[in-house]
Specification:
This is N-acetyltransferase domain-containing protein. InterPro entries: Acyl_CoA_acyltransferase (IPR016181), GNAT_dom (IPR000182). It comes from Actinoplanes palleronii. The chain is an alpha+beta fold. The chain has helices at about 15-20, 35-40, 45-50, 85-95, 115-125, 160-175, 180-190, 240-255, 270-275, and strands at about 5, 50-55, 60-70, 70-75, 110, 125-140, 150-155, 195-200, 210-215, 220-230, 260-265, 280, 285-290. Helix 4 crosses helix 5 (about 115-125).
């Protein structure tokens, strides 16, 4: 049976999340993760469905793409890594605006996995776009204490005061953030958050200074940090490193094999923070941007 491409439906999102989770493997590239879908869920289930495209063959999901600010972020099953025919179908859909994947004109693809697809994109006139730095910390050895008091919000323990602090740090860490308690609750009600936690770090005065959300993909698979931020009034004190270490410890407790993140290479401060927290920096990767 031929490959089909379709828009996701709200009812199918749980199945899609599980497919993406299974594709995560230690030592592999940081590709689309259940946590990426989970973080997008703050805008609501219908918005996630509208952003997601699914490629399947014989009823089996083989690739998932999520539109994110003009970039389609791809997750590809390991079994079709070198499948040239499948990659050609993906490229055809990505290149044809009539398919409703990318709009006419310039568009970008985040394809960090899929040897055959990356080769076709490279040879098909898609230019290298913004460079990103992937980082990972193996979670075999015990993770050191982070030095902060850390409060945890998971799907079963939601404390309003901690939740308010989580939202406040997010808004203070990222310019123009529109994060709200209501958006957090939408995210926390979604399937990916069943294997996720939000951590809020507090300094010695009891002020909320940093926060992160960590997403497990299941036992023995890489977990993801998305997003992580330090309150703008509390920068320069090592709290970024501390909350990163706390995130690694939380993922280890959840059974993740490693903690992963990918950040723009231009954000040298963030890269340095992750390295200082025991993350290994890997060679830069770029998106592919259509030039014609």
């Amino acid at each position: 049976m031929s490959v089909t491409m379709q828009l996701a439906t709200p009812d199918a999102l749980g199945e899609i999340v599980e497919a993406v989770a299974v594709w995560q493997h230690t030592g592999g590239p940081v590709q689309l993760h259940p946590g990426d879908l989970g973080w997008h869920w703050r805008f609501g289930r219908r918005k996630v469905a509208e952003a997601v495209r699914v490629w399947a063959r014989n009823g089996h999901v083989l690739a998932v793409g999520m539109m994110d600010d003009g970039v389609i972020r791809m997750g590809i099953a390991p079994g079709v890594d070198e499948d040239a025919a499948f990659a050609a179908r993906l490229l055809a859909d990505l290149s044809d605006p009539q398919q409703g994947v990318l709009p006419d004109g310039t568009g970008a693809v985040e394809a960090r996995f899929g040897t055959a697809l990356r080769d076709l994109l490279d040879r098909g006139g898609w230019a290298a776009d913004e460079p990103w730095t992937p980082l990972s910390r193996e979670l075999i050895e015990p993770v050191e204490d982070c030095g902060l008091r850390v409060e945890v919000i998971d799907a079963h323990d939601i404390r309003d005061r901690i939740l308010d602090d989580r939202v406040a740090v997010q808004r203070a860490a990222f310019a123009n953030s529109a994060f709200t308690v209501e958006r957090w609750r939408a995210m926390a009600a979604a399937p990916p958050y069943r294997r996720a936690r939000c951590l809020v770090g507090y300094d010695g005065d009891g002020d909320a200074v940093a926060a992160v959300t960590v997403w497990s993909a299941g036992e023995g698979r890489p977990g993801l940090l998305e997003p992580l931020g330090v309150h703008r009034d509390h920068r320069g004190h090592g709290y970024g490193r501390a909350i990163t270490v706390a995130a690694a410890a939380a993922l280890q407790q959840m059974g993740s094999s490693s903690a992963t993140v990918c950040t723009p290479s231009s954000n040298v401060g963030a890269v340095a923070t992750y390295v200082s927290a025991g993350f290994q920096k890997f060679p830069e990767v770029t998106d592919f941007r259509r030039t014609r």
